[in-house]
């Protein structure tokens, strides 16, 4: 379906009330920082929110370059409780959010090395109350945003920073595994945010922002009162360590030349390192295509690659965004906005042994339905293969593997099956958060309970 078919939106979002962190695309290059705060006194927590409000932007990009850096503030269910939100409001949030990510670990594949018992403190504990992030195209503007954030919490005795993480785009512009990231972004009806694939119609606003109809034609369940829920959304925030040496060792072990190694890696990801998609460039990397935002996401699967001989059905990008591919289920009900940001140093090119450094990504996954968006993608698309007819197979890059599984790569005359798959990523921590609208943040800051 062409995006041009829905040029006239049926809804108009209250963009200025939606935190910039919800819909605004990540800059490139970028630098940023994440903070986790604990609220020890509810009155101090509310006072901190009042001080923080001027630093939190709403809307999309504007003409003022100072607003190219922005801060966002999200709150966990425990955080809402710590701020003194009334019981009836707390109970109006959906069950996954109330339970928290750690309690849902088995469902989403956080087992083994990724088990919450092994997470980095304070993740998975009742101490995580607020998650504040700041993002900018450069260090100078980031520092201005951070000054406003620091002023808010440093002047408040009953709020403590208990975790922080610096993030930055690597000089290569790629992830720690060596691939360009941040290419695909859904269009959102009524937002002014254009999708990166001109062949896909925008998704209904209610898939991402509360208070508007979603793809089913219904309003997503919204926390009460309306001032708290409207224009908010949910975040799955995750710290994911990448096992770069293990990734390189596996590729080397299962190929006989650098060219074969590059192709196998692309088959597992679904793109070449430059970002060029296999569907459009199946035989070799194409840096010009990968660097062209008008073309590098302009493709569907059914017409160009229905059987997966170019991009395997089990490749990472095809699993988490099947587009128009033939799958079991309706793909449009399971989209998320994904913000991936890199932390830690790169492993030097060609090194095959782990150097002990912590590196990976801080992932923020945004949607109005935690269960049928983030959790569904993790449980059904990443850690199972039934929806594409590969029962028992998992995402070769993001799936939880125990060293015994397999991954199918279609090819002629005989398909290839990778064996003894290890895990290349480890969850180091995560939380489900609510990203309130700006009016909701003010409501929280002015509570009197």
UniProtKB/TrEMBL annotation:
The keyword Iron applies. Residues 71-156 form the DyP dimeric alpha+beta barrel domain. Residues 276-296 are annotated as: Disordered. GO terms for molecular function: peroxidase activity. It holds the Pfam family DyP_N. Keywords: Iron, Metal-binding, Oxidoreductase, Peroxidase. It comes from the Bacteria. Its cofactor is heme b. InterPro entries: Dimeric_a/b-barrel, DyP_N, Dyp_peroxidase. The keyword rRNA-binding does not apply. NCBIfam families: Dyp_perox_fam. Belongs to the DyP-type peroxidase family. This is Dyp-type peroxidase. It comes from Pseudonocardia xinjiangensis.
């Amino acid at each position: 379906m062409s995006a041009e078919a829905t040029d006239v939106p049926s809804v108009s979002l209250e963009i200025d009330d939606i935190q910039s962190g919800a819909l605004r695309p990540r800059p490139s290059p970028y630098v940023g920082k994440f903070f986790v705060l604990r609220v020890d006194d509810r009155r101090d927590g509310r006072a901190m929110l009042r001080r923080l409000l001027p630093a939190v932007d709403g809307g999309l990009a504007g003409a003022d370059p100072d607003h190219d850096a922005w801060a966002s503030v999200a709150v966990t269910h425990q955080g809402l409780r710590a701020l003194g939100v009334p019981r009836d409001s707390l109970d109006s949030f959906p069950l996954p959010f109330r339970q928290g990510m750690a309690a849902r670990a088995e469902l989403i594949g956080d087992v083994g090395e990724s088990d919450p018992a092994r997470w980095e403190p304070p993740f998975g504990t009742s101490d995580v109350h607020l998650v504040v992030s700041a993002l900018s195209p450069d260090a100078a503007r980031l520092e201005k945003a951070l000054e406003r954030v620091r002023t808010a919490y440093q002047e408040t005795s009953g709020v403590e920073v208990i975790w922080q993480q610096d993030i930055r785009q690597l000089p290569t512009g790629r992830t720690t595994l060596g691939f360009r990231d941040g290419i695909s972004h859904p269009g959102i009806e009524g937002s002014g945010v254009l999708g990166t694939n001109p062949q896909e119609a925008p998704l209904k606003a209610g898939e991402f922002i509360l208070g508007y109809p979603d793809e089913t034609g219904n309003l997503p369940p919204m926390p009460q009162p309306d001032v708290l829920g409207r224009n908010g959304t949910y975040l799955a925030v995750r710290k994911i360590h990448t096992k770069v040496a293990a990734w390189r060792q596996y590729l080397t072990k299962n190929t006989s030349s650098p060219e074969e190694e590059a192709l196998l890696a692309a088959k597992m990801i679904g793109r070449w390192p430059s970002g060029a998609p296999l569907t459009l460039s199946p035989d070799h990397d194409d840096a010009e295509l990968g660097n062209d935002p008008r073309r590098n996401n302009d493709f569907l699967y059914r017409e160009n690659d229905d059987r997966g001989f170019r991009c395997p059905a089990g490749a990472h990008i095809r699993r988490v965004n099947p587009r128009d591919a033939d799958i079991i289920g309706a793909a449009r009900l399971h989209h998320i906005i994904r913000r991936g940001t890199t932390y830690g140093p790169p492993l030097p090119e060609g090194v095959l042994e782990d150097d002990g450094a912590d590196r990976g990504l801080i992932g923020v996954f945004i949607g109005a339905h935690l269960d049928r968006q983030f959790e569904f993608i993790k449980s059904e698309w990443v850690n199972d293969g039934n929806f594409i007819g590969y029962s028992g197979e998992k995402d070769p890059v993001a799936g939880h593997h125990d060293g015994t599984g397999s991954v199918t790569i279609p090819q002629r005359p005989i398909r290839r099956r990778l064996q003894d798959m290890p895990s290349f990523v480890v969850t180091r921590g995560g939380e489900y958060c609510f990203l309130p609208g700006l009016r909701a943040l003010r409501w929280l800051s002015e509570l009197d309970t």
